[in-house]
Amino acid sequence: MNLSMVTDLYELSMANGYQQTIPDEEGIFDIFYRRVPDNGSFVVTAGLAQAIDAVADFHFEKTDLAYLDSLHLFTEKFLLFLKDFHFSGEMTAVPEGTPIFPREPILTVRGPLIQVQLFETLLLSIINHESLIATKARRITYAAQGRPIMEFGARRAQGPMSATFGARAAIIGGCASTSNLLTAKLFDVPSAGTMAHSWIEAFPSELAAFEKWAELYPDNCALLVDTYDVINSGVPNAIKVFGDLVKQGHQPIGIRIDSGDIAHLAKIARQQLDAAGFEKAKITASNALDETTIQSLLLNEKAPIDNFGIGEKLITSASDPVLSGVYKLVAVVHDGHLVPKIKISDSREKVTLPGLKKVYRLYNKQTHEAFADVITLADEEISANSQISVRSADPLDTRQHSFLRDFDFKALQTTIFDQGKPVYTSPTVKEIQAACRSALKELPEESKRLSNPNKYPVYISEELAQLQDQLIGVD
Amino acid sequence: MNLSMVTDLYELSMANGYQQTIPDEEGIFDIFYRRVPDNGSFVVTAGLAQAIDAVADFHFEKTDLAYLDSLHLFTEKFLLFLKDFHFSGEMTAVPEGTPIFPREPILTVRGPLIQVQLFETLLLSIINHESLIATKARRITYAAQGRPIMEFGARRAQGPMSATFGARAAIIGGCASTSNLLTAKLFDVPSAGTMAHSWIEAFPSELAAFEKWAELYPDNCALLVDTYDVINSGVPNAIKVFGDLVKQGHQPIGIRIDSGDIAHLAKIARQQLDAAGFEKAKITASNALDETTIQSLLLNEKAPIDNFGIGEKLITSASDPVLSGVYKLVAVVHDGHLVPKIKISDSREKVTLPGLKKVYRLYNKQTHEAFADVITLADEEISANSQISVRSADPLDTRQHSFLRDFDFKALQTTIFDQGKPVYTSPTVKEIQAACRSALKELPEESKRLSNPNKYPVYISEELAQLQDQLIGVD
C-alpha cells in the first residue's frame, strides 16, 4: 500500500500538463478551512507528523508506474519524473494541537508546481481527518470538565487506519487513553479497557465471571455491570467481589455502565457502592455518548460519573463528520517573482487570501490571554511597540479598519521542510496534548463554549487587505 | 503497521482470562446490525475481502509482543500463544454486495474463544466502514437514475486508507469510477478526473488554460468552467476550445460545474452548448452533493446533468456516518455441545438471536422478486415444497405466527474459512458491483425508496423464535 497513490487522478493530469507547458513555474498552496465543525469557533490542528512522513516518503513504485502508464495519459518524461520524485521545496505549518481559526493557513507548501500539485489529496485527507477528530475530542473533554475520557471507537471508525490515527488525534484533543493497541504502541499513549458482555456470558453466572476477573486482574478490576440488570444483579455482584478483593489487600477500580438510563443507574449504583463502603470505586459511563449528552448528564442530571468511554461519536465526529479543509493556490513564482493569486467566487465568503502569509496570535500584556489573531503578508514585520492597521479577515463582516497596539505576540507557523529537507522534529503525542492544553488555556473562555461560542477576532493586515481588494478589482 | 494490533485492549484481557479459566471453550460470534443508516431499509455489505485478509494474516510481531508484555497484564503463556497465533476455526458470511436487513448475520465466526474474541474490533471496523459506504453509494446511484457517479472524496475522507477502501465500497454500491489512484490500481476499477481550479489559475487566462488542456488531452477534454464566471466566461471559452478540437477531429467530453446554483447554471450551459452544436458534450455537476440534492436537481428542477462527481458526503456517509454493526456471542461449544447464548437487554429491541443460524431469501416463483427473508437455526432445512412456520424477526412487531409457502429460495451465507483455511475466492470488485446490481433488482421497488421505504419482511423460524423465548424466559 503506497500512500502516495492516494492521489486524485487529476493531480497527475495537471502535473503532467505543467511539465509540458510551464515546467519551471513554482506554486504556493495554503491549507485552510472556512467552517468549523459543530459550529465551534476553532479547530484543533492535528496530523502534521503524518503529513511530514507523507511528503518525505512521496514516491511511486514500479507497479504504480506501470498502472499509470496503462492509462495512456502521461508522457514518458513525466513517468520518469515520478520515478525519481523527491520534494525540493519548502513547507511551513502550525504545530499540532494548535487551536486555529477559519481562513488561517494551517500548512503552506512552496515548490515546483509539478511537485506541489501532487500533494493536495494526500495532505488534505490526513490533516482534515486528524484535525476533525482532535477538534471533537476537545469538545468532549471540555464537556467532561476534567473527568478522564477513554477513546474506544475503533470498531465503529471508518476503517482500522482511521481508528488508529483518529485515536492519536483524540489524545491530542484531550482524551486520557485509547482502547486501540496500535495507537497506544505507536504513539506511546495510555491504553485502557475493561471487559465486554461476552466475558460475562461465557461463564455460568455474572458472579462467576466477576470472580474470575478479580482473580486474574486484582489490581485492574473494573466490572461491566449491565449484562443482566445493573441495580439488582450487576452492582450487588460487583460489591461482593470488591469485598473479597479488599480482604486480599487490593483496591477495586470500579464499575462500567454501558446501557439504559445512565444518569438514573449511576445515581443508584453510587448509593449502593457508597453504602457498601466503596466510596472510591469509580463509575464509568459509555453507551453512545458525545459532548451534548455528557453536558446534560453532568450539569442537568448531576450524574455521579467519574470517567467516560466514548466510541463512535468521537472517532467519526458523528454529529459533523467532515472538516472541509482546502488546498488553494495563493501565489506562483514566475521568473523569480512572487505573483499572488486569488480564487474569486460568486460567494464573497469563498474568496481566498492571496500571497505568502504569516499568522500571529496577540496576547494581552497583563492577563496573557489571547485576544485576536492577525494574518499578514510574510514580509511584513510586526513588533510589540508599534501598532498594526487591520481589517476583519471575515469578508462577511463590515471590515472597518481597526488598530491594534500594546500586545505580546507569537508567530504560529514553523518551518517544516527547507529546500526539500525535513527540518522539524515532531514532539511526542503526550507533548502535543500538553501544548494543546496550554494553548486552549490562553483563549478567551467564551470562545470555547460548545454552543454559540463568541467569535474570536481574526484580522488581516491592511497590506493584505489591499492586495486582496486589488486582485478582486475592488477600488 | 500491523493491522492485528487494531484491537481493543479488553479483547486481549479477556482472551488472556479465557486461557486461564476456560481454555477449551469454543465461541460463535455473529456480526449484524440493528439500525440502517439514513433510515433506509437495508445495508449493502462490503469489506469481506479485507476481513478475510485480516483473519488470515492475524499475527503479532516482536515489537507488538514487547509492547504487550510492558503492560504487565498478560501471562507468558498467553504471549507465546499470541506469538504463534493462527486461526483454526470456521467463518461463514454473505458475499459482498448483498443487500442485508437488520438482525441478519452478515458474518459468523466459530472457533476457540481465545482466538475469536480477538477478531471483534478489527472485523467490525472493516465491515462497518465498507458496508456503510457501499450503502451510501447505493442511495446516491439510485437517486442519479442511471447517470454515472464519480467518487472523488479522498481529500475529505477520514484519512487516506478510509479514502481507499471507502472508494472500493463506493464502486461496489454502484459508482462508476473513482478519482483515487490507489483504489483504481489495487482493485482494477476505472479512475476518473478532470482538472482543478489551480490549473486555470496557473495560466494567464481561462482560455489559455483550456487551450493548453485541449492540446494535452484532446480525447479527454472535460473543462472546469466555474473558476471565474460559468455563463459569461467558462462556457463560452469551453465552446471556443471545443470548436478547435472538433476541427482537429476530436470529440470533446464536456464541462464540469463545481459551485453556484447548479440547476440554473446547468440549464443555461446546456443551452449555450447546444446552440454551439455541442449537444453531445456532457455536463458534470459536483459541489457537495448527496442523494437528496441529486433527487431534487433531477426530479424537481429538471437540471440537465449527465454525470455527478460526489465527494465528502459519500466517502464519509456524512448524513449518517456510522454503521453500528456488533459482534455478539450467540453460542458456546462446551464439551462438544453447542449451547446457544443470548444477550438480554432492558430494551426488547436489543435482545439478540441465539444459536448458529442461516439466512434465506425467498422469491416469488412467478415474478422472481424477493418477498421476504427467513432466519433459521443452522440445522433446520427448508425446501421449496414445504411450508415454513415463522414469526417476525423484529421483536417490536406483534410477532404473530405466519406460514410461508410456494417460493423459490437462496441461502445467503457462504463458507469462508474451514478449519482455519480460507476456502473462498473473492470475486473482483467489478463482479461484486454486478452481483450487487442484480441482487438489488430482485428486491421490491418500495424497499429501495430513499425516504420512508417500505419495511421488507424478515422472519425467524418458529424453532428459532421458541429458542429465543426459552432463553429470555418467556412462556
Automatic annotation (TrEMBL), chains A, B:
Recorded metabolic or biological pathway in which this protein acts: Cofactor biosynthesis; NAD(+) biosynthesis; nicotinate D-ribonucleotide from nicotinate: step 1/1
A biological process term (GO) from this entry: NAD+ biosynthetic process via the salvage pathway
Domain Nicotinate phosphoribosyltransferase N-terminal per the UniProt entry, residue ranges: 5-128
UniProt keyword annotations, A-Z: Glycosyltransferase, Ligase, Phosphoprotein, Pyridine nucleotide biosynthesis, Transferase
Gene3D superfamilies according to UniProt: Aldolase class I, nicotinate phosphoribosyltransferase
Gene Ontology CC: cytosol
Enzyme Commission number(s): 6.3.4.21
Domain Nicotinate/nicotinamide phosphoribosyltransferase positions: 149-352
Pfam families hit by this protein: NAPRTase, NAPRTase_C, NAPRTase_N
Keyword Ligase: yes
Record carries keyword Transferase: yes
Ranges for domain Nicotinate phosphoribosyltransferase C-terminal: 357-468
Function recorded in the entry: Catalyzes the first step in the biosynthesis of NAD from nicotinic acid, the ATP-dependent synthesis of beta-nicotinate D-ribonucleotide from nicotinate and 5-phospho-D-ribose 1-phosphate.
Family: Belongs to the NAPRTase family.
UniProt name for this protein: Nicotinate phosphoribosyltransferase
Lineage, uppermost ranks: Bacteria, Bacillati, Bacillota, Bacilli, Lactobacillales
